[in-house]
Amino acid sequence: MQEIISLLTSKDNKYACDIADKIIAESQNTDKWYEHFCSFASLLNHPQSFVRNRALYILAANAQWDKENRFDIIINDYLSHITDEKPITARQCIKALAQVGKAKPQYIDRIIDCFHNADLSKYKDSMRPLIEQDMAKTIKILTE
User: pLDDT value at position 80?
Assistant: First the structure.
């Protein structure tokens, strides 16, 4: 697993992204990667936003396999990225939460509450409306 973590945190972002995409795609159809859930969760606070983005999507893709409720342990950390220091990562988190909520409906109210209570004032005026739109789209998906 250390090798996969090294690949996901590689300085070659294209290669690391390709690895993440492969894991995400495979995780849609199989629980093959779920056993490494905690290792992926360890990347949520990585200093590089690209790595955090990858972790958010990998974890979201594996939420459907979470019969052991490992997500309960990381949900606060995951939700903290709704207001990540990097607006792109905040947007990726918000979008990924649609998949998390569909797989783990017990989190839907909490996700929506976090959206409503999120302080977006730190983001530039050009980014704030995009983040708000992402939140609205995710809420729509979660409440359909």
Answer: 98
DSSP class per residue in 79-112: HHGGG-SSHHHHHHHHHHHHHHHHH-GGGHHHHH
Backbone phi, then psi, for 67, in 5-degree steps? -75, -20
CATH of the domain at 99: 1.25.10.10
pTM: 0.95
* Domain extent for 60: 2-143
The answer to whether 24 and 12 are in contact (CB under 8 A) is no
Q: What's the number of domains the chain is made of?
A: 1
Q: Cα(9)–Cα(65) distance, rounded to whole angstroms?
A: 24
Query: Up-side HSE of residue 140: CA atoms within 13 Å toward CB?
Result: 6
* pLDDT value of residue 67: 94
- Is the confidence at residue 120, as pLDDT, over 80? yes
Q: Is 4 exposed, middle or buried (0-12, 13-18, 19+ CB in 10 A)?
A: middle
Please give the Cα distance from 122 to 142 (Å, whole number).
Answer: 26
Q: Tell me the pLDDT band of 7, cut-offs 50, 70 and 90.
A: confident
